[in-house]
Every structure is written in C-alpha cells, then in structure tokens.
Design goal:
Length: 228
C-alpha cells in the first residue's frame, strides 16, 4: 500500500458514498467506490450475453483494463463508458454479480491496482474507499477503518425519499423489503460477507445527517493522528 487508505464499509442505503466523498474532499484524498466497479462488471458481462442466471466467466473479467480517474468516469482501455450504470437493470445485475467469487476476486484486484496507481502519481495524499468488505478483505491493513450503519427502517426511509423524486410511484414498504433482502444477501453470502472489521470504528448514523457523520470520522482521524 503506497498511500494511506481509509476503509468505509456498511450496508446498503446507509449513505456510504456521500460520506466517503465528503471525507475525501475535506482531506484532499481520492474517492473510490467499489459499487461503481461492480456496476461496470455487470454492464461488461451483460454486453457479452450474461443475464444473471449463471456463474460469470472469470476469464472475461481478467481481460478488463478498468481505470477510474478523479472525474469518477470509468474507462475501459482508455475509453469512457457511456452506458447508464445506475439503471435499474444494471443495479439488479450488479447485486447478483457481486455474489460470485471470480467477480469479487477481480474487483478486489482492480481496486488495489487503482490505489497503487494513485500512489504512483502522487497527486492525492490518500484514498477513501467505500464498500462492504474493504476493511475485511480488500485492504485489511488499511490505515483507518470505519463501519457505518443504521436501522433498516431509517435506511429505507432515506432511500425512499431519494427514489420518489425520480420514481413517483415508489412505495415505502417496497423499498424496506428491498433493503432487507439486500442485507440478507450481503450478510449470508459465502464469499466476503458483510461485517465490521474487528478494528473498525462503528458509527450508527440513524440519528445523524451526512455532515455529522463526516465530522465524526474526521474527529476520529484527528485524534488518531495520521490522516487529519
């Protein structure tokens, strides 16, 4: 690890990306989302005929040369991906594809490659990386580890308020059911199940807004020394 990594893990709908971006901005660090990489993988495989009903071909993933610059635009072999990686179809496929070991192995390798590249450029002082197994699997030796969580009801309400602007027919109970099903898959999967690292600082965000969570993390980092 050539630059310090802040690992930010947690379940779906807890606001990891918003918090991670805020922490990265305040520290002058590079922000990287593992979820974006899984979305790229889902799109990449679907373009090659995978429909979610079988184990993805790991050999196809080995040939991927994926980079994500500071503009957060993923590029394959230097060419930006123009597809809507946040569409419902890709979101659903990303959730499925992340359950498979060959995909997780390749995703982990890509994250390490990107962090290594960031270290070589020297442009950023560190990396804030958010996901579900960053502190336990991808970077178990990360300089700092945080696990952000909230009740499933709170997370569902936050997600509902986001979705209703784009999808007026969204129902609270459907969002809650989706959150609970995603939690079940993430926590019970055979490969890298969602859990807090033993040395992670856990922050319950149920009664906190994003800025308060960012401040809590920065305060912990300042007391710990290295990153603040």
């Amino acid at each position: 690890m050539t630059v310090p990594v802040i690992a930010l893990d947690g379940p779906a709908g807890v606001g990891k990306s918003t918090v991670a971006k805020g922490v990265a901005r305040r520290l002058g660090y590079y922000f990287l989302s593992s979820g974006l990489i899984y979305r790229v993988m889902a799109w990449y495989l679907s373009e090659r005929g995978w429909d979610g009903g079988s184990t993805p071909d790991g050999a196809q993933l080995d040939s991927m040369h994926l980079t994500i610059a500071a503009d957060q635009i993923p590029r394959l072999d230097g060419e930006p991906i123009r597809a809507d990686l946040h569409s419902d179809r890709i979101s659903a496929l990303a959730s499925v594809v992340s359950q498979h070991a060959p995909v997780r192995d390749r995703c982990n390798a890509i994250q390490r490659e990107i962090v290594s590249d960031i270290g070589r450029t020297g442009v950023f002082a560190g990396v804030v990386l958010e996901g579900r197994d960053i502190g336990t699997v991808v970077f178990p030796d990360a300089a700092h580890k945080f696990f952000v969580t909230a009740s499933d009801e709170v997370r569902a309400e936050r997600r509902y308020l986001e979705l209703r602007e784009m999808e007026p027919g969204t129902r609270r109970e459907e969002v809650l059911a989706s959150i609970r099903e995603r939690d079940r898959r993430d926590r019970t999967r055979d490969v890298a199940p969602l859990r807090a690292a033993e040395d992670a600082v856990t922050i319950d965000t149920s009664r906190l807004d994003a800025e308060q969570v960012i401040e809590a993390i920065l305060s912990k980092l300042k007391r710990g020394g290295d990153a603040a």
